[in-house]
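Dear all,

This email documents one entry for the complex benchmark we are building for the journal club exercise. For each entry we list the sequence lines for every component of the assembly. Then comes the predicted three-dimensional structure of the complex as a token string, followed by one or two observations. Please use this as the template for your own entries, and keep the labels exactly as they appear.
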Amino acid sequence: MPGKLKAKVVAGRHLPVMDRASDLTDAFVEVKFGTTTFKTDVCPKSLNPQWNSEWFKFEVDDEDLQDEPLQITVLDHDTYSANDAIGKVYIDIDPLLCSEAATVISGWFPIYDTIHGIRGEINVLVKVDLFNDLNRFRQSSCGVKFFCTTSIPRCFRAVLIHGFVEELVVNEDPEYQWIDRIRTPRASNEARQRLISLMSGELQRKIGLKVLEMGGNAVVGYLQCFDLEGESGLVVRAIGTACTLDKISSTYTAAIVQNLSNSSPSKDMKEAGFGEEAPGVPLSSGPPTPLRAQTFSSFSPSKSYSRQSSSSDTELSLTPKTGMGSGGSAGKEAGPLKALLRQQTQSALEQREFPFFTLTGFPPAFLLHVGGVVSARSVKLLDRIHNPALGNTRSYKLLDWNSFTADEPETRDAWWEELRQEIKSHAKALGCHAVVGYSESTSICEEVCILSASGTAAILSSRFVQDGALDTDHRLSRQQASVFTTGAEKGEGVMGSSASLGFEDVAPPACGFCHIPYDELNMPFPAQLTYCHCCRRHKVPDVLFTTIDVPTEANVTGKGCLIQARLCRTKKKGQGEGNATAISNLLPFLEYELHTQLLNKLKLRGMNALFGLRVQISVGDTMLLGLASATGVYLTALPSPGGIQIAGKTPNDITYEQHISNMQKKINDTIAKNKELYEINPPKLFTLDPDAFRSINTEFVEEVIGSPIPEPRQRSRLFRSHSESSDEVLELDLSHGKKDAFVLEIDDTDAIEDIHSLLTDAPTPPGFYSCNTEIMPGIYNWTSGLQMFTSVRVFRLSNANLTNQGLNKIFNDLCENLLKSLYFKLRSMVPCCLCHVNFIVAVPEDELIQVAVTAVAMSFDKDQSQENGRQSGDKTLMKAITENEEQLQFPLELSAESPSNPLSCAKGLSEVSGPLPSARAPSVDHSSFTDRCSSWIEQLRLKAHTIRRGSIKTMSSLEKASPVPEGRSRSLRSNRSCPGSSITVVKMTPLSFIPGAKIIKYLGIINMFFIRETTSLREEGGVSGFLHSFIAEVFAMVRAHVAALGGNAVVSYSMKECVFMENPNKNQAQCLINVSGDAVIFIRESELEATPSQTQSGNVQTSSNGEGT
Amino acid sequence: MSVELDVFVGNTTIMDKEVYQLWLNGYTVNDAVKVRMEGGVMEECEASAEVLLSDTMDQFRTFQMCERLLQNPAKLANQLLFQIPPDRQAMLIERYYAFADAFVREVLGKKLSKGTKKDLDDVSAKTGITLKSCRRQFDNFKRVFKVVEELKGPLVENIRQHFLLPDQLARDYAAIVFFANNRFETGKKKLQYLTFQDFAFCAGQLINNWTVGAVDNMVEDMDVDLDKEFLQDLKDLKILIADKDLLDQHKSLVCVALRGKTKVFNEMETNFKNLSRGLVNIAAKLTNPKDVRDFFIDLVEKFIEPCKSDRWTATDVNLYLTHYTNSAHILDSFKYQTVWTRYMGVIKSCILRMYHE
């Protein structure tokens, strides 16, 4: 239960002069944890004091260890007057509580003062001795790992993904307490910083407890936010995805290797979740198509759609909803499969209140289908809430406040709950049982607060979501209920499970997620469906909007680009409820327009899908700002977008017509130019000739595999036979694809505005690309050039009565100019891509618009990027395999572990020739419905299996040949790169990876909150000077903390909050910044030892798996 | 409608060399933007004036924030605020401490005091260098001067280590410090033809041969002040001109050696006594600080100008000085050989450097 925290103060340097007379400082240090304080001796008359203190020891509960920061205060000793504080350092010791993270914190920390900024540095050593605590009712959750990264962290493997965790704590904001009137700004700022530090510690601990309850050991995609509600308090809330992660180690690799070679079923039982799956899922089969149709009508719809209808009732009037785009699983004939799959997973997922995942990147085969974006907003009036729930406000006694009328977090909880319910119902309406890429945000202006939640409706594989507590009863009873149907389902179940096992190669790679999850006869919204351009079997929507990253396996034509929709709407000043109503009335229009703008811009670029969509609505006194950012791409699986057609309604006027045709021409030109720019040249053959498609597909696969396996051709033939029933439809949909030109009517001024704003978006300068997702589709050969930056602009509107159009233009120009400036600044990095471009807009005051951008510029190698389509296709696949190293082993490991067909797996590994008998055997074991079909499906799966295997082989040989192996290590032997000189270079990136390098250790989460205030704004260089140095200071402090943990980079870095307030008349300004990220140690690939991989030719496949750790 | 705030902060501090130079040159943001526009960055990168202005402002602000660190370059390497790659740091420091020859000629040998600083606007007007840049350069001189004043050890090395400057620049600063400390007169009209590098060379000679440090290298101020004992000893050289026999002997020895080797032999012979008197008098007077200041002007007036009027070539001067020095060693009654060598070695190389044809 308890732990011992030890701290030692070594030295200081570059201290400020505190004694004007001597130009020196008599410094000493106070080290405080909780209520215990230690002091060092005074080091007289030195700006570079050496204290070399003893070890200060604090004996504390681990609960406190999690909540409290270690507080180090540097003071100047004064004999006659009070000691002057030089500054403080808060050290979050959470990383030390996790056995796998950092072991010691040691390094130079900037001494920070909220008024003066950084004032020198202090060298501190911190250690923790933690005694193991197995108490089940403990309040601490030490050992639960936290990651900001919104995908499975690179050196881990997901065993289970448990799902959504959320927590929220509320407190009174020290800034708004009565005592604030008499205390100094410094004291007030420090109280605030400390409170937020405490609250986030507490929040993290509570979330950790929830994770432990769920049986997980980590939180991935941890997103913590602050709501500064002013008078009504301070809310710290967090959401995340609970997971059980396994560190990928060499011993583990060995186990896999062994497992593979022996194909021993002994390991099967280790994973309960997987064992569970075995009896229910595969290995029996109903007769083919006609019967499936029957099942479809009789069984699945009733169940899934009754839910949908009920959910639609719960929609709230205040909250507009958006459901955009879609993708689906099977076409008509696969209805039952869908139903089964859904139920399977649903049964696991539905045990949870919210089947939400904050992840945006997924283990392979986890994401099956994507429905589209779901979002919900609600407008709330903030009230001062009474009756503190003391359990949530432990910090009071620490801060020793005299009066506390605190808020109950229940109210806020209820608000979010409401919103999440709505999201859930939206997802259901899209035929999805889960929401991925989920995030929540708020915008507050005075007492009005807009809560927003958004995510992507999706169908997930049951693979990772299964709990130990999976309801087998449920499924069993269902099976008994209709024997016949079950048979059919089971037949499909094989397909389903094979998909979930990562054998999606059965379908042409990775178009699965584009297939619609909802039923095409009962579509939740009007959309034009066509057959998937990859597999030709399933229906896909014409456009797909998502909040997730581009799945690594996705087939993308050309490159992507950042697409933004920007909108400003004026609003009357209002008070209270009236104001809230006005805002909520405006919201739907705002969202609709943003959506239209996005769609237009997407089409203008000749693309058909949006990833990483993030819609921000900011509210001010007199306006609403909407900014939607996303990365547009051309998904090969989706139909080519039609052009934009302009139509006028007054056809008599000749000049008018001319005007229109001019505009039309401009638009067409732009589309053509964009297609060229983003290298969008979809293989036309795909849409024209199924045969051509097939041959290309075959060629493609062979290209990738490069080994003489005859499978592909055979495989494609199988496809054809499989999709025979839908051949006619195929022909039909071709003509249909050309009709979908988008018509813009420019009768109204709005449309003219739209077109205008469409055309005014300046193209990125040559050599630049931009996206707001993790990776840019179409660019893979990153060099190590990396530049993370934050840029902030505040724009003052001098003219108070602006029209919507005027405002729009200003806002649009502001964003465009900001982007232009960024391109100019980073021109030396060309060719380069701005990745993870994240805009935060705010309306800090009546006439101010604030835009903050954080992104990373990454340069890449130009030569390789200009390869033709097929080669890059190769690369895509290769990348998909190499990039997500850990993903490789899933299929292998699973096949080895799967009890369903251990024999066939073993066979599959060794030989392709004789899968038939072996496949049959297990089917017999598990079901009486053995027939021709089951073995057929079995065979299909095995072939896919083999193909995958072959491709791995090729990959590794390709790897060897390529001069710059990416994202993959050859050996783990060379370990930690020691920081050499006095200052470690710390890289920062909002991405979850560092190009050309390998993350070997996660050291813990960095979550820091700073306040900076000045009363001498002019002297500090005005608002720009003030903010510039503050941001630089924040970076410096983040780097220092990472370096002290032994790390050399921060990944998944984000600036979540940047609240800037100024009062130039009083020469004052204040700014709050909240940043977070994951501290890591990475090593350059060039530093990695090369293993003698040549000798492993026979074993390459396994070794490449093993190394992909 | 206006941009109220506009900042860009990179994890690695972005600095454009060209903009840095404009900043160092003391341009205002607007002037710098103009220069950049003329330089053609805009066409290169499709930027607008607005973008250029924003970028320039931002970088100027960054430089301003860095300036505090640049004034103490050792700090730049272990500060945490700006993450700057080492090669960039070196560039920043080198350029910050670089100075214009035109400027340094104006202040070389002047006292680095507030008074001189006040006169910088005149210097600025005269040289066309912005006042801001003049101030920076002047402050650099003063800062370096103040720091090395209190340090022991070789001057150049101290400067190099303390300010992390490249060798050549450190040497130049050593010269500046040396000149400022000894207040050598360099501004007279007759000295105008000399470049800073001429003086820097001479300073190097003086530092290496005439200071205390040249003999004993663990004395304070050793490289900054001339060796007093040596200066005292120089008085003894007076015998060369005071003693008539010695002077004649010396002359005949030199003439014997020079005969037939130069076209200006006759002039040499006629001028020998004048020239020798000039050089020895310079030596003898160096105990007087006032005369130390006039060292270079004396060299010009007493030696270089007479030679020039007789159209000596540099080779002639070299020949003459070599034999002039060596012949003194043969004089039996001349006992101050070491002092003579130490004196003439420096004089010879200085004169040769200062002798522009």
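Observations: Chain A has a mean pLDDT of 69. The CA atoms of residues 224 and 924 of chain A lie 51 Å apart.
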